[in-house]
Amino acid sequence: MILKERKVPGPNSKAIINQSKQSEPQSMADQVPVVWDHAEGVWITDVDGNLFLDFTSGVLVTNIGHSHPKHVKAVVDQTKRLMNCYSFPTTERVELSKRIVEVLPDNIDKVFLLTTGSEATEAAIRIAKRYSGKHEVLSFYGAFHGRTYGPMSIAGNINTRRQFGPALPGGIMAPYGNCFRCVYDKKFPECDFYCIKMLDKIIESSSSGDLGAVIAEPYQGSAGFIFPPKGWLKELEKWANARGLILIIDEVQSSFGRTGKLFAIEWEDIKPQMICLGKGLGSGIPTSAVAGESKIFDCMSPGEMSSTTGGNPLSSAAALSVLEILKEENLTENARTVGEYLLERLSNLWKKYDFVGEVRGLGLVIGIEIVKNKKENVPEVDICKKIISRCAELGLMLGRVGMYGNVIRVAPPLVIKKEECDIAVEIFDRVMNEINKTL
Questions:
Q1: Can you give the pTM of this predicted structure?
Q2: What is the spatial distance between Cα 127 and Cα 399, in angstroms, rounded to a whole number?
Q3: pLDDT tens-digit profile of 289-301?
Q4: Measured between alpha carbons, how far is residue 31 from residues 74, 137, 401 in Å?
Q5: Is the peptide bond preceding residue 9 cis, with omega within 30 degrees of 0?
Q6: Is the pLDDT score of 339 beyond 90?
């Protein structure tokens, strides 16, 4: 089933976008020119009445689907009682922290609730430096940990670092486990995790002897949904533990069912000392957290870490309902099984079209890398943009990511069904076939 074709943007969307240009900075993400009006489950309706199948989840936020009745009720009920009280404890905040601790690895027993992913990674970096007494942090090429200055300074993503001046000192970069574009020109598994083995050389030449922590994403979202080879994260954990480094895993994007496990670290039984959470935790209500071991948090004195709205009753109530919905509706398992089905169907596009360089994913997070041709694998941005734009005209809402902006982001809400995946694949196939005929 192909949805009704429509003009994008519609007249109402176009008028609002023009108004936006007058009053808002045009520095936000470059999205399809559609103004959303309302949404339910996996379906979006824009201000022109057009229906779209949502394959963005609002940038991997609405894991439980748009406007879930139980989530909406929790938010509405809480607004009638209490929405904010700064850092005073509330039953909602304490209960949420308890619930999060219960589902994380057993070494993690404390949770500091915040508002955004950037706030969570910023806090994790600061606390790790205080606890370790060291001030260097190892991170990876392509990493995205937020847009505030601390996370930006340890990010390897050109979209966050360019032309903002010198970064904060202490950031050390190393290649991520990106087998599709290996900087060492190695092949896995023959390389035997060569990029992990090279970390000592990188530290030897780049560190002042003050390295205290390493931060990594289970998969790199902003870099183009880059998935390291199986076992890479475990090797990184072993490497960090052997050197007494604090391992921080940034699961702001990958947590709460997205990969087919509640947390992506579960796929390899990783036990970091700190973990950053966000996005899907609040399902649209800004909520994040940094969780870790008591001994690490104990290095901070009362009042040294706080957030004006972090852990407020409203966001805590919303997050509690998200955890309940994920469990009651078995959405993590749905993400795994439907994700496997969708990945298999999208992989057929790789076989059919020479400009599809790779289709990769885990659970309901899948990247389709668009290239000039498979032989050269040169990033192709224009074709990527055309695919996304044309898919929107046929009712499929997508996003674009990647260091080069050539990766189609496929990340529907976790409530999606196989039948809805079939609609998306049919649209993809039609659009790619149209474009292929013009090459």
A1: 0.96
A2: 33
A3: 999 999 999 999 8
A4: 30, 33, 11
A5: yes
A6: yes
Three-class DSSP labels, 218-274: CCECCCCCECCCCCHHHHHHHHHHHCCCEEEEEECCCCCCCCCCCCHHHHCCCCCCE
Q: Where are the domains of the chain?
A: 11-64+330-438, 70-328
**Token pair recorded at residue 171:** 């950031």
> Which amino acid, one-letter code, is at 393?
E
List, for residues 312-328, the tens digit of each pLDDT value: 999 999 999 999 999 99
Tokens of 434: 């149209």
Which DSSP category does 195 fall into? H
* Topology (CATH level 3) of domain 70-328: Aspartate Aminotransferase; domain 2 (3.40.640)
Percent of the chain with pLDDT over 70: 98
SS3 assignment, position 300: coil
Rounded CA separation 275/255 (Å):
10
11-64+330-438 CATH fold: Aspartate Aminotransferase, domain 1 (3.90.1150)
- Nearest residue to 259 (alpha-carbon basis) of 162, 332, 312, 152: 332
Cα(4)–Cα(49) distance, integer angstroms: 12
